[in-house]
Amino acid sequence: MFYIPTFFVFLHKAKFLLKTPNKKSALSEIHGVAQPETLSTVVASQIQQFRRKQPSAEELIAGILKGDKTALSRAITLVESTNPEHLAKANEVIKGCLPHANNSVRIGITGVPGVGKSTFIEAFGKYLTSIGKKVAVLAVDPSSSISHGSILGDKTRMEELVKDENAYIRPSASGDTLGGVARKTRETIILCEACGFDTIIIETVGVGQSETAVHSMVDFFLLLKISGAGDELQGIKRGIMEMADTIVINKADGDNIAKAKLAKTEFNRALHLFPAKSSGWIPKVTTCSAYEQTGIDAIWDIISEYFELVKSNHYFEEKRQNQNQFWMMETINEQLKSHFYNHPNIMQLLEENKKAVQNNEISPFAAAMSLLEEYFNKE
């Protein structure tokens, strides 16, 4: 006689009951208590009620003209956005602010990484606000070519200036634009001027000769240098030196004062090798210590002297007009490039031609010409 365990008998009966349609199974589950909601409907309605609505273009324009920094920041965010809806709204805001712009001095500041650009701008900005100026700092941070991200940490290094009521700091990523300054920065200048800022400072990435884009949107170009770092001979190279209106040797403090004076002499000699500027201005060299905040007033005196000269000989207006033409052409180039790469037929053919070029089936120039012919024929 075989002994069958009770557990197996139970399983057999359960299986029989499940197969029998009219029999109620003892293995059915009780549904129990319903899952509670993760968020109360009352709380959700309150959040939606008090959630800030996106302001219209007219509201942003009115806020900017009143000097509201929050409205200015929101408008700049629209300018920097790649969303087509935001772009249309940003253009409307810029159009409304344009009649109130072009009433400031625009200063571009560049230099090699580690020269002390952020420290200098804080000391320089604090000096300007102390003499009654309203200062807007547009700090361009380098974007990583690998992660495409940017730290945007300039505000953390300008602790005193960021708390100043007469100052405004806006960091932005350079992206893949030449000189780290895109069309976005050009339009941001217009918004800052309409907001009442009479001095616009643009801090560049500091990578050398790609600073041409910065030079094409500022009135005065200041080049920061340091002494004792093999920088004197590097500075004599043509390109960025030709664009500089003033060279400032930073970190002239402590044991570095003698080296800074020697570097000043060497740069003065180097500047004589360059042809005269069309503005009639002779570039000057001076020293300062942004850390000890010495020599800052002398730099502003040089800048003021420059503006007196260029406004008296009408070079100031001429340069602004040439800059407007330059940026019109740049905008056309950008739009053509964007339209070409976003064309449906080109997007498909581009990948095919890339593979063909990689496999040496066609030369890069022939591939480019075939794509351009396809683009213009379809147009």
CATH architecture of the largest domain: 3-Layer(aba) Sandwich
How are helices and strands ordered from N to C?
Answer: HHHHHEHEEHEHEHHEHEHHHH
Strand content: 5-15%
How many β-strands, per DSSP? 7
Please name the fourth-level CATH homologous superfamily of the largest domain. P-loop containing nucleotide triphosphate hydrolases
CATH class category name of the largest domain: Alpha Beta
Q: Give the termini separation.
A: 93 Å
**Residue ranges: pLDDT <50 for 5 or more in a row?**
7-11
State the major sheet.
7 strands, parallel
Please give the radius of gyration in angstroms: 32 Å
Helix proportion of residues, in percent?
40-55%
Category from helices, strands and their pairing: alpha/beta
Describe this structure in words.
There is one protein chain. The protein is α/β, with parallel strands linked by helices. The chain has three domains: 54-100, Single alpha-helices involved in coiled-coils or other helix-helix interfaces; 101-313, P-loop containing nucleotide triphosphate hydrolases (Rossmann fold, 3-Layer(aba) Sandwich), CATH 3.40.50; 327-378, Helix Hairpins (Orthogonal Bundle). It has 15 helices and seven strands. Helix 3 (57-65) packs across helix 4 (69-80), helix 3 runs parallel beside helix 5 and helix 4 crosses helix 5. The radius of gyration is 32 Å and the shape is globular. Mean pLDDT is 81; it is low at 7-11.
